[in-house]
Amino acid sequence: MKKTKLKKWIITILTVWVVGSIIYFIWADNELQKVLGKSTEVVDATSMVTELGTVQIKNVNILYEDCSRFIPNQDVVIKDGKILKISQHQDSIQSNEKTIDGTDKYLIPGLVDSHAHLKESKNDLLLYLVNGVTYIREMKGIPIHLEWKKSLNDNGIGPRMFVTSSSITSISGIGGYFHEWTRKSINYTNENDARKAISKISEQGYDAIKMYTQVNPEIFKATINIAKEYKIPVLGHIPEVDLETFYTSGQIEVAHIEELIKKNMEKFEKSISKNPEEYLQFLSSNANQIAKKINENNISVTSTIWLMESLPEQRFELKSKLKEVELKYANPKIIEGTSLHKLGWLPNENSYEYDGKNTPEAKELSLTFWETYVSAIHIMTKALVANNVTIMAGTDTNVSPMVAGFSLHNELESLSKSGLTNQQTLYSATVAPNEWMKSNSGKIKVGFNSDLVLLTKNPLKDIKNTKSIDHVFFNKYIIDNAQITAILKAIEDANNKNRNVEIEEYVN
């Protein structure tokens, strides 16, 4: 009798545990899906844009192909999404075709954000457009991004898209499955599984393979070799190899300047928080050699400097930092996060924020570390510039507090302050990424796509002038200031409908 009761208790406990685990899994999965932003109403911008047809921009200053100067008094004719003609004193076009007065205005190629994370926040595509960003590289792709890309290629309303696979990892055991679930990564630990995964990535139509940090040397090498067979490039983080191995590995791009800093820090055998000046001296003595090797092996580097610069403020002055960004346009479900884990942007939900649990001395050491980290980014950037490394402007959008579209202008300012001339900065957001992608955009040139931005102020005089947007041309469409205002208002309204946490105290 006692054995029967014990057996019933065991069965009951196991049943409760199994049911509880299932309920928890369903809840946790729902929370992880929620913070992707899919539940926010998608704005229909069809009535807020104008189809191009044939447009002539009269008497405008156009950016030279190397971004060094503007050519004055040019007439640019665009038709059906292509640049048809460039010359002075163009013949008049037909009366039913649109003319835009470009007098005292500046025409530049559409901007590119080379490090974006859309998640499932489709309104972000519009945020890019209204900020003059006509091409993005989605750096952690999922199937829905491929659908959006196809739609945009079929004359949808949004920027052109380059889509990498989700991040590759090689985590053993249950940790690998957990990472796949929570981070949407592609995890494999042997060459056979690597081949299956890369074959699927190629079949699905991804443009590149995204390498992540947690990849061991064997799987890194296998991934590179198999990717070459499929003629698909590998880019992203630097995995678990040293820089000497990485230089000649075959990976063609580093997704953050900070990846180089992390590898350099591994060689510094003292506390950086306690020896900040000594570390910066150590980096300075190595930075040029690192940059030289990066250049010699034709490896490009994406910037994400402004995110790094924000970290000390996010850690210790989060509310003030949030007031600097256009928070009302960020998807509310992304910024609100989840009680499951600190995945949001707001106080108590932001993983960068200092938790205040340690001593004042520990807090001071933490601040010193992050300020040193930012200084290190600047040192490395200057070395990359000095050694002619191809730098592409990228933001890591939808990582706190990178608001889609807007954050690229912050990034351009950071690049300009970090050692790039305004010419080099514009090049990093126009010519460089388009040449890297082998696209037909990025220059104001006959036959190229008419992905263009008309500015009221000269960005070569002040890089902040990339924000002085008068018109944006993309695909077969055009938007002006009034339409930009309407699109932003619609996104703000959609966000407010789906907001659970009020943000007035963080909005200027």
From TrEMBL:
Keywords: Hydrolase, Membrane, Transmembrane, Transmembrane helix. The keyword Signal does not apply. Residues 106-474 form the Amidohydrolase-related domain. Pfam families: Amidohydro_1 (PF01979). The lineage of its organism: Bacteria, Pseudomonadati, Bacteroidota, Flavobacteriia, Flavobacteriales. This is Amidohydrolase family protein. The keyword Translocase does not apply. PANTHER family: ALPHA-D-RIBOSE 1-METHYLPHOSPHONATE 5-TRIPHOSPHATE DIPHOSPHATASE (PTHR43135:SF3). InterPro entries: Amidohydro-rel, Metal-dep_hydrolase_composite, Metal_Hydrolase, Metallo-dep_Hydrolase. GO terms for molecular function: hydrolase activity, acting on carbon-nitrogen (but not peptide) bonds. The chain crosses the membrane at residues 9-27.
